[in-house]
Amino acid sequence: MQFYISILTFTLISVIAVTGIYVLTGLTGMFSLGQAAFMAIGAYVSGFLVVKAGVPFVLAAIIAVVISVIVGYIVGLPTVRLRRDYISLVTLGFGEAITALLNQTQSITGGALGVSGIPKITTLTLALISAIVCIVLVSYLKNSKYGRQCIAARSDELAAKAMGINVPRIKMTAFLIAVAVTSYAGVLYAFFTTYVDPGIFGWKKSAEWVIMVFFGGVNSLTGSIIGTIILTGLPEVLRFAADYRTVFYAVLVLLIINFKPTGLFGEYELSVGNLFKRLSGKKEERSNA
Amino acid sequence: MKKFLAIFLAVLMIVGMTACGSSQPEAESPSETPQQEETAPEGDIVIGVLQDITGVTSTLGKMVQEGAQWAADEINAAGGINGRKVKLVTYDTKADVQEAINAYNRMTTTDKVSAIIGPPVANIAIAIAPISEQYNVPVLHFAIDDRATIKDDGTPYKNMFLFQPSAKQQGAIMGKFAVEEQGLKKFGIIYNQSNAYSVSLLEPFKNTVESLGAKVVAEVPYQPNDKDFKTMLNKLVSAGAEAIYAPNYTQELILIVQQARAIGFDGRLICGLDACPPFPTLCGPEADGVIYINNITETEPQIQGIIEAYKQKTGNDATNKFFLGYDVMKILAKIIEEVGDDPVAIRDAIENLSGFQGLTGNITIDPNTHQTKGLEMVMHEIQNQAPVMLKRYSAEQ
Amino acid sequence: MSIQIIINGLAVGSVYALIATGFSLIFNILKFSNFSHGALMTLSAFIGYFFAVKTGSSLIPVIIVSMLAGGLVAYIGEFVAFRKITLRSTSPVYYFVSSITLGTLYEGIVTIWVGPNFYNYPRFFQSMVVNIGGFVISKPDLIMFISSCLALALLVIFIQKTRLGRALRSVSFDRDTAGLMGINVFGIIQLAFFISGALAGLSGVFLGINYTLYPQLGNLVVKGFIASVIGGLGSIFGAVVGAILLGLTETLLINFVGSGYAPVFSFLIMLAFLLIRPQGIAGSNVQEKA
Q1: Is C128 within 8 Å of B262 when comparing Cβ atoms?
Q2: CA atoms within 13 A on the CB side of B46
Q3: What domains lie within chain B, and their CATH numbers?
């Protein structure tokens, strides 16, 4: 039982990170291969503060997120103005730079050996509540004016600009939101595994998250969430298949991308109104038929 | 309708997977047996094996597992322990700490193993050490970095036990040999900064050579993904190093040794455990002249016998890790024979283990450090791509 | 001493250049970053390895086998992972996502096939180094440098001077119009993948010789990606130059600030470069819109 709880918690943490990525990549169309670095910053700063400096958890978490956002702002300033492919490149480089920095600064961060002995504060409840909060926030964002502006900017930057949308500012805000959420996920992660080291936060991880968003459906928050659950939970459940599970995972994603490029969920969003409509819609269908 | 179908399928998939997952929790291990807690007293003795079976350090982990399995097979063929068979449940950590932590939790809670044969990989052992405090299952591992066995305050983790000489001991032996036997005075060091094993071998070596009057002229760290060491090696050479100390994993070591020779460095290369076979054959002629440390020496008769038998059976060569796994399994067998399969009793017995004659030497555990006392290591040189024993050392504290 | 460093840098650069030629071909023709290129290199390298071990051949046959294998797998890969996307004309972003997954697939297949160990190519050369004027150059590096230049030259000639090359260029410029003009667009795309795959096979073999063979060898594709972007969209020549510069910069950085801080400085340099010269070294300034 303990085992399944831990998998579930871990999946929820990924979900939180992906909601951030959703805002960045799904809504605003920016491809960042370095988001995992912000997770690292969140994890390290909070872990370090609590273990080495004895700061209470909540305060450490807040400080960690704030610092991540500041770093994100500095990185974002030049980055968001760049073209689409360049954004991937620069964020990738940034991710690698952060990993290198973490490896180097051994006296503070313990270098490659990481920070261990972090108290286990993240429980299933905390992860669940955080996940729900993030999902609600992001879904609210998506349906708000801001969200629509993001989608406009993603679809056609020039036209969006012509309509008076301040595109650079939108992009920066999206970037910062993603940074904040991802670093919070990092905090939860550190206090869940009780150990962080720089190796887990590379570009491959960032790429994995982007894939999860696409898998679930770029236009659908529900899709990204369910996609994350599937793609994070799958490797765990398939552990018995050992190496074959990577192949299985890859084949699954390839199938979806190729045959249903809008993702598993397409445009569909799970919401109370939608559910209601669906149920009453079906009733209508049946009565009409 | 299509959308509803999509959701329905997705939900079904998840439910199905969870159902699958929960109905075969032990299915990942190659030697699988669903463990029911109810078959306790007359059932098999379950020992967990937590190793890298895949991933970059898999050559090490797989060998430990094979060694332990070989020993378990021998024990079972001789009638088992008090009539009960030994069952090894292996989890692959995939050189990933997260996986290892999950697997470890699983072993101690779901599988209820009596003891765990742990990894030689320091990064993983260090991560597991704090978690091991919550459980009562002893972990017999080979990670030489002190932090895998001893807490910051100097007391040992209650469940972690190291079964080969620690980094302090190994580094000291290598240093001593280099200065006293080889007469080397100026050392350059190249090491993997993100590898706990590499890093832990630095200080003891440096301290030893410096206390014996030699000097470390340059130290160059590298990162895990670096493949081109020529520039770094050049730095060591131009700083005047007559010998290069390279306590690194086999894969990088091959490149380091080849590239060192390629840039024209003719001096001695001093390496850790990883230069043992199969390194010489993998590396090729450049490996000649490399000096390294090992737990065993292949020419000893009792080891020879097993090496040949293993080679006959599987076609592979048994490495030092094989014998470490073998010894540890035999130690567990002896202890379980005496105190039964209760993990807590086993743990206490391990803490007081004294004078066990294993293939890797005479093993005694120091209760204050949970590390070995006076276990031997042997210095070798590679000649014609084969190891030649040079000198035997007993690990001082 | 510093000349030796520069030689080292060029050597590293030529490794990257070889990766970049294959990578940038797809980057320019289909306008996306083919992240499966790396894993393809690994796959074909391993095929070459097993061929070498089974038949004990020397370097050239192994290279040829590797290149053929690479081209073939890329050809199949295109059909499996990219064809549908081309058909639907959905946003190029999907190519990217699909390619990363395809790369994971290749890597997974390689891992299952060869197991966790790492392998080393059998000795192809008697001595590994040549001594030129007091400087030590390793033979594989030299051969890599020469073959990158050769591959580049051949590729450029092919693209600029031959009919097929012209077709390639027109497909990269405007796929639909090219199709309307009677060019077999899918055939051209397949050809591009085949060539890119063959180049992957070539790089794979040399990477294997230089760095030993292991399933994660493909991670080096990132260097090809960086080189192609710095080199500029639309120019394979730029990608190669970018790769060599990247190698040089990395080596110099490692020498002066140590390999720990090198990625940090690389990042800053790259950022500055892209801000100052967005079209890259030799690329044309392709606006995303208007």
Answers
A1: yes
A2: 27
A3: 26-165+303-363 (3.40.50.2300), 167-294+378-394 (3.40.50.2300)
* pLDDT tier at A66, thresholds 50, 70, 90: very high
Distances (CA, A) of C176 to C86, C185, C193: 11, 8, 19
The residues, ordered by sequence, that sit 6+ positions from A91 with a Cβ below 8 Å of its Cβ are A31, A32, A33, A34, A35, A75, A79, A206
* Residue C290 to residue C288: CA distance in whole angstroms: 7
Q: Which two tokens stand for residue A173?
A: 């805000």
**Chain centroid to CA B206:** 23
**Residue pair B364/B355 in contact by the 8 Å Cβ criterion:** yes
Mutate to test the interface with A, among B97, B150, B157, B248 (most CBs of A within 10 A): B97
The predicted complex's ipTM stands at: 0.75
- Residues B99-125 have pLDDT tens digits of 787 788 888 887 788 889 988 888 788
Which positions in chain C touch B228 (Cβ < 8 Å)?
8, 11-12, 251
> At C276, phi and psi to the nearest 5?
-80, -40
User: Helix axis angle, C2-29 relative to C236-276, nearest 10°?
Assistant: 100
- CB count within 10 Å of CB C41 equals 33
Q: Which residues of B touch A198 (CB under 8 A)?
A: 194
Please tell me which of the candidates A88, A246, A259 has its beta carbon nearest to residue C104: A246
Interface test with C, best of B228, B233, B316 (most C CBs within 10 A): B228
A240 at interface of B, judged by CB pairs closer than 8 A: yes
Helix H or strand E encompassing A273:
helix A272-288
Query: A103 in contact with B at a CB cutoff of 8 Å?
Result: yes
Residues of B engaging C, defined by a Cβ cutoff of 8 Å: 52-56, 58-59, 62, 193, 220-223, 225-228, 230-232, 234-235, 238, 251, 254-255, 258-259, 261-264, 282-284, 286
Give the distance from CA A199 to its chain's centroid.
Answer: 18
Q: Is B81 left (phi over 0), alpha (psi -120 to 50) or beta?
A: beta
Chains that touch B (3 or more CB pairs under 8 A): A, C
Per CATH, the architecture of C2-276 is what?
A: Orthogonal Bundle (1.10)
The answer to whether B59 and B319 are in contact (CB under 8 A) is: yes
Cβ distance C260 to B59 less than 8 Å, yes or no, reads no
Mean pLDDT of chain C: 80
The structure tokens 């667009």 sit at C185
Q: Does A111 touch chain B (CB under 8 A)?
A: yes
Chain A positions touching B27 (Cβ under 8 A) are 239-240
d(CA C168, CA C170): 5
Question: Does C101 contact A at CB distance below 8 Å?
Answer: yes
Structural domain spans, chain C: 2-276
Please name the amino acid found at residue C251.
T
Contact C265, C285 (CB under 8 A): no
Separation of alpha carbons C103 and A250, rounded Å: 9
Domain residues of chain A, as ranges? 2-200
Closest CA to A186 of A71, A29, A28: A71
Q: Which of C255, C260, C263 sits opposite B193 (nearest CB)?
A: C260
Q: How many CA atoms lie within 13 A of A21 on its CB side?
A: 35
Q: pLDDT tens, B248-307?
A: 888 788 888 888 887 778 888 989 888 887 788 878 788 888 888 888 887 788 888 888
Report helix, strand or coil for A99. helix
Query: B interface mutation test: which of A11, A116, A220, A280 has the most B CBs within 10 A?
Result: A116
Interstrand relation of B376-383 and B290-294 (parallel, antiparallel or unpaired): antiparallel
Interface contact C93, partner A, CB < 8 A: yes
Q: Do B231 and C111 touch (CB under 8 A)?
A: no
- Does position A138 have pLDDT exceeding 80, yes or no? yes
